[in-house]
Structure formats: C-alpha cells, structure tokens
C-alpha cells in the first residue's frame, strides 16, 4: 500500500476548502428563477465589451512601452520603469475615483482651471480606466520576453535593408506574441473581476449587478450571476493556461540610442499615461487633503485594515506550507496546488456572495472578522503558495539528508534546516497577501463585521455619501501601500534581470 507524503492530508483539506464557494453558489443558485433574461443579457454584453476594450487598450499601450523600456537607452531608465509599472500596483478604483471626480461638469479640473471638461463614465470611461491600470500586465510580460531575445536578428534585418520599425514589426513582435497574449488575458481577468471601477463609473457589469442584488437581498439571483461570471473567468483561465511562451536561447541584447528629438517624442507619447494613471490620483487626493484636511477619517480604519490583513497573511502562510510541500512531493500534490489557485481567479464579489450565504447557515460566523479573514485567505492563498514553493524547490536536498545522517529526526531536520531556509519566501508571500487584503473592496463590503470600516470600505462609503473630499487620507495611504508592493515586485524583476545577464554572458 502506497503511503501518502505527510503534507498531502492537510493540502487535500485546504484544496477542498478552496472549492467550497463553488458548491455554495451552486446550491444557492438553484432557487433562482431566471438564467438568462433581457437584463442579464445586457449585463453580459457590457461585461464582454469591457473585457474586449480593456484587452485592446492594454495591448495598444503596453506593447510600445515594453519596447521603450526594454530596448531604448535613456537617462533615468530605472525611474521610467518604476513610473510606467506603477499602475500595476495601484487598485483601479483609486484611479476611477480620481478620474470620475476630476472630469465632467463641476469636476476638479474645471473648478481649478475654469475649462469645461468632458465627463468620464459609462463603458468608455470604465474601459479607459481599466486600460490604464492593466497595461502593465502586457508591458511586463512582453518586456521580460523582449529582454531574452537575440538582438543580432534585428541587426541582420537592418543589414538586409529593413527599417528599424519594420524590423521590430516583422522580427521582434512575432516572437513575443505569446507573451503579449498572456498579458492581455491577465488584463481580461482583471476587467472581469473588478468591482470598484464599474460601480464608480456607473456601468452595469456582472460585479456591480451582483452587489446590487446582494443589497436587495436577492442572494439567489446574485449567485446565479456569480456562476455566469465564473464560467467566463474559467474560460479565460483556460486560455491563459494554454498560452505557452516559446523558449529561445538568450543572445546579445538589443540597444537603441535615440537622438534628442526622438527621445523627446517618446517621452511626450508616454507622459499622458503617467499623468492619468499616477499623477492625477496623487494630485486629486493631495488637493482634497489640503482643502478639507483629514475630515471624518479615523485612524482606527487604518488599524482595522492592517489587523485583518495581518491575520489573513499569517493564516495564508500556515495554509501555504503544506500545499507548497505537497506540490513538490508528487503529481497529486501539484493538482491540489492548482485547485487552490482557483480562488485567485474568483472575483472578490463572487467569493463574498458565497461566504455570505455560508455565514447565514452558520450564524456564529456571520458578519465576523473570522469569516472576512477566510475570504482573504481563499482569495490570496495562491500568492503565498507560489512564494513558498518557489523558495522551497530551490533548496539543496543534500542539507536535509546530511542532517538525517547526523541523527536528526524528520521533524528536527524540518525545523532546523527546511523552515529557516524557506523563511524568506514565507515573508514575501505574507507581504503580498497583506497588501492585497488591504486593498480588497467587494469582499470586505459584504463580509466585514457591522461598523468595521477599513481604508477601502471607508472610501466606498464617502463615495456613496458624496463626501468625496474625505477620501484623501485613505486614498493616499492605499497609494503608499501600493508603492511598497511595487518595490517588492520590481526587486524580484531586478534579480531576474541580473540572472539573465549572467546567463547571457556565458
């Protein structure tokens, strides 16, 4: 009889818990009267239109910026990479909040300059915001692929009489199309799962209508809509899993040295993206802070966010350890790991709907901090699992074997060898879970205890009440936390670039 590896039982239990929201939604949706009616079809059309427009916008912005940051040699190159990647770390509802109240009649821009401005709302306004905050997915995946290409092929095309732009179009872009597709599908997932931006911009997508149904005590209809949304998300996840990057041996890196006017033209082309996605939210929140001060903001809201997020980070790391070790132990463990990744693809509004119903069946959990922490863990557990597994699989197994030869028990070898060496991955995974939980809006709105305000929910309350000036402090705090997350991501990318340059130099 084959004996399961020790991490398997706990990993199996965690995988079953990760699938629990799906079972709850199926049971809840059984009482729904309508599968598809005219309203549902309109919501479906809006959601798909937003997804398509987001993909188009993210690719049109992200691919040129990937070429710009990968190949063009310019002053302060690292600073430009940070500025252009910054929207990746910001929650899109921050940008939607700033843009909605900046443009249009009576907006902040008109109030400060006296110049009438067009409004930014509806489908096109939502697609604009989504494109501005998802193009870094395309930019970063494409840039990573560009950095691994052999630049000598471009030089060969130039020698054969092709212009630089034709060479990039015919030689470079076909070789990175899978990376572009991968980034575009990530942008699509973000557009499908985001709640705050469509809600603020007034677009009826699945996420917004699910929340409306929840507030109207229509849990069955909210569950039915959630399952429909999950079908679309599952399709996108399937397509994303089928996109495989083509391996190519790294060669000499392509370097482009633009003239002064070319450099100026590139900066002018990139500047609107930075202004709209990064500078505008900061300027709007700083203006509100100078005008209205801290308003009704209480620092207890920040403490609530931090406390719940710390609990989620700790629980996520504890759950991630058996899942990560199970993934390294065999195929069954890898399957369990993939199941836990399902929660990351489930939109927060869908997770909230499922757990609200679960809380109603278990009154001791309903509207408690424990249920909110469970939602955070199920949503962001893959971040912790991936970080721990990546660190653990790089460990030298000879160290553990040596400890066993010297008389250490398996438990002692784990506590004294394996656990300390995976501590770095555990801390990184916990930090990522903490940052994502701090920014989570829909699940917190639906599952937070009565009167339990966080930074994200306080911003939503002042938006609903029309006191948008009071969003300055929580908005700036969320931007600060997002900046910390960006530094973590770019530090990882910098280590990857260093490894690539070493490999290419051999």
For the record, the count of structural domains works out to 2
In sequence order, what are the helices and strands, one letter per element? HHHHHHHHHHHHHHHHHHHHHHHH
**Number of helical regions:** 24
Structural class call reads mainly alpha
- What is the 3D shape? globular
Q: Largest sheet at a glance?
A: none
Average pLDDT works out at: 81
CATH fold descriptor of the largest domain: MetI-like fold
Second rung of CATH, namely the architecture of the largest domain: Orthogonal Bundle
InterPro entries: MetI-like, MetI-like_sf
Transmembrane segments: 48-72, 79-103, 115-135, 180-201, 221-240, 261-286, 306-327, 339-358, 364-385, 467-490
Domain ABC transmembrane type-1: 44-240, 302-489
Subcellular location: Cell inner membrane; Cell membrane
Structure description:
By secondary structure, the protein is an all-alpha fold. The chain folds into two domains: 1-21 and 299-452, MetI-like fold, CATH 1.10.3720.10; 32-264 and 271-291, Orthogonal Bundle (MetI-like fold), CATH 1.10.3720.10. It is built from 24 helices and no strands. It has helices at residues 8-29, 38-71, 77-89, 92-102, 108-113, 122-146, 152-159, 164-172, 177-193, 196-201, 206-215, 219-242, 260-292, 299-329, 331-340, 342-345, 348-361, 369-392, 397-405, 410-421, 423-439, 442-447, 455-465, 472-505. The longest helix has 34 residues, at 38-71. The model is unreliable at 495-506 (pLDDT under 50).
């Amino acid at each position: 009889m084959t004996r399961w590896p020790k991490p398997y039982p706990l990993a199996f239990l965690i995988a079953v818990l990760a699938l629990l929201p799906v079972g709850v939604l199926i049971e809840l949706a059984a009482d729904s009267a309508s599968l598809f009616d005219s309203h549902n079809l309109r919501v479906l059309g809006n959601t798909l239109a937003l997804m398509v427009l987001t993909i188009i916008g993210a690719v049109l912005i992200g691919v040129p910026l990937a070429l710009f940051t990968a190949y063009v040699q310019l002053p302060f190159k690292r600073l430009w990479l940070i500025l252009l990647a910054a929207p990746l770390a910001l929650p899109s509802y921050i940008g939607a909040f700033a843009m909605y109240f900046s443009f249009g009649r009576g907006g902040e821009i008109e109030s400060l300059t006296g110049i009438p401005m067009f409004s930014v709302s509806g489908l096109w306004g939502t697609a604009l915001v989504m494109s501005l905050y998802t193009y870094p997915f395309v930019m970063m995946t494409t840039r990573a692929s560009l950095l691994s290409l052999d630049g000598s092929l471009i030089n060969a095309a130039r020698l054969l009489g092709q212009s630089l732009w034709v060479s990039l179009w015919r030689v470079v872009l076909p070789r990175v199309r899978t990376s572009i597709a991968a980034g575009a599908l990530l942008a699509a997932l973000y557009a499908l799962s985001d709640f705050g931006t469509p809600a603020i911009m007034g677009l009826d997508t699945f996420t917004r209508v699910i929340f409306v149904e929840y507030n109207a005590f229509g849990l069955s209809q909210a569950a039915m809509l959630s399952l429909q949304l999950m079908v679309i998300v599952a399709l996108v996840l399937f397509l994303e899993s089928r996109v495989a990057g083509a391996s190519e041996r790294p060669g000499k890196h392509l370097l482009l040295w633009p003239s002064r006017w070319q450099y100026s033209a590139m900066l002018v082309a990139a500047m609107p993206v930075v202004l709209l996605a990064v500078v505008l939210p900061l300027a709007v929140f700083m203006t509100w802070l100078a005008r209205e001060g801290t308003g009704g903001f209480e620092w207890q809201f920040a403490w609530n966010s931090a406390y719940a997020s710390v609990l989620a980070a700790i629980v996520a790391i504890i759950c991630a350890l058996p899942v990560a070790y199970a993934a390294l132990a065999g195929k069954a463990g890898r399957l369990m790991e993939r199941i836990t990744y399902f929660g990351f693809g489930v939109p927060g509004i869908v997770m909230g709907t499922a757990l609200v119903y679960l809380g109603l069946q278990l009154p001791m959990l309903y509207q408690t901090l424990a249920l909110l922490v469970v939602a955070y863990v199920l949503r962001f557990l893959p971040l912790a699992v991936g970080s721990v597994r990546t660190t653990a699989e790089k460990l030298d197994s000879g160290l553990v074997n040596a400890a066993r030869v010297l008389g250490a028990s398996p438990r002692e070898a784990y506590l004294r060898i394996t656990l300390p060496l995976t501590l770095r991955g555990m801390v990184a995974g916990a930090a990522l879970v903490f940052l994502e939980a701090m920014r989570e809006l829909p699940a917190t709105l639906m599952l937070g205890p009565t009167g339990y305000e966080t930074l994200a929910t306080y911003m939503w309350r002042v938006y609903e009440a029309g006191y948008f000036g009071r969003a300055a402090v929580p908005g700036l705090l969320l931007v600060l936390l997002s900046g910390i997350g960006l530094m973590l991501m770019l530090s990882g990318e910098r280590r990857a670039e260093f490894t690539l340059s070493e490999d290419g130099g051999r």
